């Protein structure tokens, strides 16, 4: 069996383990490569992209498009429910937050019913500053 048809290489296991260990946050390919390098594990950026793309195709990881300068980030998913909610991103610390909010669901419903447009929630990210970063800014001001 070839690697492209599902052969499990050591590098793939390491990448998958990293994603599972960090499943509560969104990570970039550069973060994965850097972290593995810090642990003395050499995995090329192309290998990481190729394997993560495969995980995204399988529904085991989600791709989130961020502002252009950062490209995309990824997150391991145990269940595929990111299409059902919106996301927040702190512009200070970079944290992504999955947001279950009835008010935003009402807005999505309004946009569809009144404007005949369906919002892709998996790609909808609201940018701002989280409470922790806002509190730090007040302390440092």
Task: Annotate the secondary structure layout.
Layout: H1 10-21, H2 29-38, H3 45-58, E1 61-65, E2 72-76, E3 86-90, E4 96-99, H4 102-115, E5 125-128, H5 131-140
Parallel strand pairs: 3-5
Antiparallel strand pairs: 1-2, 3-4
Helix pairs in contact: 1-3
Description of the molecule:
The chain is α+β, with helices and mostly antiparallel strands and 141 residues long. The chain folds into two domains: 1-80, Winged helix-like DNA-binding domain superfamily/Winged helix DNA-binding domain (Arc Repressor Mutant, subunit A), CATH 1.10.10; 82-141, Ferric-uptake regulator, C-terminal dimerisarion domain (Dna Ligase, domain 1, 2-Layer Sandwich). It contains five helices and five strands; from the N terminus they run H-H-H-E-E-E-E-H-E-H. It has helices spanning 10-21, 29-38, 45-58, 102-115, 131-140, and strands spanning 61-65, 72-76, 86-90, 96-99, 125-128. A three-stranded mixed beta sheet has the order 4-3-5, with no helix packed on it. The termini are far apart.
The topology string of helices and strands comes to: HHHEEEEHEH
Strand order, sheet with most strands = 4-3-5
Which runs of at least 5 residues are low in confidence (pLDDT < 50)?
Answer: 1-5
* Structure summary, number of beta strands: 5
| Spatial shape | flat
Structural class: alpha+beta
The percent of residues in helical segments reads: 40-55%
**Over the alpha carbons, how many angstroms does the gyration radius reach?**
18 Å
């Amino acid at each position: 069996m070839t690697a492209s048809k599902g052969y499990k290489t050591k590098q793939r296991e390491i990448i998958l383990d990293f994603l599972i260990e960090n499943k509560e946050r969104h990570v970039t390919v550069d973060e994965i490569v850097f972290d593995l390098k810090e642990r003395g594990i050499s995995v090329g950026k192309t290998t990481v992209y190729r394997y993560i793309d495969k995980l995204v195709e399988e529904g085991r990881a989600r791709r989130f498009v961020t502002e252009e300068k950062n490209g995309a980030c990824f997150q391991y998913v145990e269940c595929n429910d990111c299409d059902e909610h919106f996301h927040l991103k702190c512009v200070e610390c970079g944290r992504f937050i999955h947001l279950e909010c009835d008010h935003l669901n009402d807005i999505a419903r309004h946009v569809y019913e009144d404007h005949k447009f369906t919002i892709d929630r998996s790609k909808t990210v609201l940018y701002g500053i989280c409470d922790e970063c806002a509190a730090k800014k007040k302390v440092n001001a």
